[in-house]
Amino acid sequence: MMLFLIELWESVRDFMNTGGIVLYWLALVLCIMWVLMIERYMYVTSAFPKLAKEVVGKWDAREDTTSWYAHRIREAWISQANEQLNARMQLIKTLVAVCPLMGLLGTVTGMVHVFEIMANTGTGNPRLMASGISMATVPTMAGMVAALSGVFFSSRLEAKVKVASHRLVDSMPHH
Amino acid sequence: MKTVLKSVALAAGLMLAAQPVMAAAPQAKTLEQLLQQVQKDRLSDGKINKEREQEFLSERADKQALLSKAKRDLADEQARGKKLEAQFSDNEKTLAELEEKLTLAVGNMGEMFGVVRQVAGDANSRFQTSIISAQYPGRDKEMSELAQSKELPEMPQLEDLWFALQKEMTASGEVVKFPATVTTTSGEKKQMEVTRVGTFNLMNDKEFLVYNAEAGGISELSRQPESYITDSVADYAKNKSGYSALFVDPSRGTILTLMTQKVTLLERYNQGGTVGYIITGVLGLGLLIVLERLFVLGGISAAIRKQLKSDTPSDNNPLGRILKVYENNRNVDVETLELKLDEAILKETPRIERGVAIIKVLAAVAPLLGLLGTVTGMIATFQSITLFGTGDPKIMAGGISTALVTTVLGLVAALPLIFLHSIVYSRSQSLIHLIEEQATGLIAEHAEKESK
User: Is B404 an interface residue toward A (CB < 8 Å)?
Assistant: First the structure.
């Protein structure tokens, strides 16, 4: 088990080395993205229903639900609940969008590396250039994979948030 | 020509010799006298002939004896000749044998000589580049003499070679300090203590040094490697006992020399040119706006939070101003109140949303500027191609890396701006939601509480 973990770590480190420093930034972004997504998922599934129940309970306890005041109050509560629900969703979306850009950044820095080697040693040694080229291509791939993993789950999350919000609105009828 | 001259001289000589004979013969005056003279001559000639004949006859016996002696001598000589011939062939055989032996012996020696020359040549080239030569100069000269000499090496020379090789081996395992003259980057020569780590590195108390094989001296690097590498040298020099980590160049100075060609971050940034500076300006502007926004929005949300806790509406925050509208229009009907509130809210929102869109525009513009830089860089590259052709990739590579640097700069500027935009945007949105959707709700709650 330990050996397996060590081997896994080795292969991860090798991968990081071929991709250069950009991969570490990408890993950081990916990490933050996933932490935020998991946090949102947990909030939507466990914490938000409690809040919704509380709000609905407060609404149901009201006698007046049809006056202008009641409408405004309802809107304000829904808005507050939505505020809680949508917190950091924008950041998650941004992080997903940023992943391929970071991959691109890695590509370009890799290409700079390649051309620098070319400027120093000429085109004689393709082996020297290969390290730069792998530095250029690996981050692109990593960025794509990171973005794809994020895109799917973040869109799922967004749908979930929307559904939860609609459900809250629906469960506060004017009676 | 010579022969012609000779024959002419000979003829002249004969003529000179013949004349006195003709002159000596007395001139006959009459036929009778001539007859008598002929007769007289014939008589004297016959006498002379007889004398000669006698002489020959007497000598004949002698000649016979001489002949037989000569024949004996010949036989003797022939016998001796045969004997010598046999001896000669014998000698020839031994000669061939000896020669064979000689070639064998010389062959072994020649092989050894070749090996010595080769080893000395190898050692020479190794010593020339080895940094150990910085400590013991002049070793390569002896080796090159040995490698190029045409004579068989003497015993002391062979021992020298062996000793030199072993010295190199021992020295390659040492970490030693020795005084040496070092050429500084400004060109002056300085005496200082130099530390040598095996055959790998030379360094003084804080920097790496390189051994220049051609100039045969130690010199400072024109540019030291990164500070965390150079710091290990200083740490090592300070360490008095025990062990200390040290960066060592396993390529014996090649990597260190290559590192001097490495472009620093600042140089690379400057490669971006005008477009690079513009992108930096865009980033700076964006960051300034973000800072200003964060500060203002933070202030507003702090004031609003304060307002939520107090009952008296204050003028220093949007929510307070909206609440004030309600306070001032307590007695109007609901529709008018809603219109007035909408008006007040509409007045507040631009102040909160201001600048957020600009950040987004700047974040979008930065990569585009990078692209612009790339294209101008490519134009420069193609210009250099039209001028110098595609022969030298180094010329092109310089332009291309310049072109790519702007792309990097554009992305590096865009990434933080995108992040910060999303943060500022979500902050402003939450504030907008608060005053648009929740402010009226608060007023309604307030009104309900009062009416009770």
Answer: yes
- Provide the residue count of chain A: 175
Minimum distance, in Å, between the CA of residue B250 and any CA atom of chain A = 18
Distance from CA of B343 to the nearest CA of A (A): 16
Q: How far apart (Å, rounded) are the C-alpha atoms in residues B152 and B154?
A: 6
- Reported as a single tens digit per residue, the pLDDT across A67-99 is 888 888 888 889 989 988 988 899 999 999 999
Give the whole-angstrom CA distance, residue A117 versus residue A127. Answer: 11
Q: Residue B448: closest CA among chain A residues belongs to which residue?
A: A69
End-to-end Cα separation, chain A, in angstroms: 61
**ipTM, interface predicted TM-score of the complex:** 0.86
What is the Cα–Cα distance from B167 to B211, expressed in whole angstroms? 19
Task: Give the residue from A96, A107, A112 with the most B CB atoms within 10 Å of its CB, the best one to mutate.
Answer: A112
CB–CB contact A68 B444 (8 Å): yes
Q: Between helices B155-171 and B31-129, what is the axis angle to 10°?
A: 20
Show residues of chain B in contact with A98, CB under 8 Å: 415, 418-419
Question: CA A44, CA A162: separation in Å to the nearest integer?
Answer: 10
- In the structure encoding, which two tokens stand for residue B298, read together? 């933070």
Residue B1 burial (CB count, 10 A): 5
pTM, full prediction: 0.67
Grouping H, G, I as helix, E, B as strand and the rest as coil, residue A127 is: helix
> 3-class DSSP state for residue B209?
strand
DSSP B208: E
Q: pLDDT per residue over B245-265, tens digit each? A: 888 888 887 888 877 777 777
CA atoms within 13 A on the CB side of A6: 3
Determine phi and psi for A20, rounding to 5 degrees: 85, -175
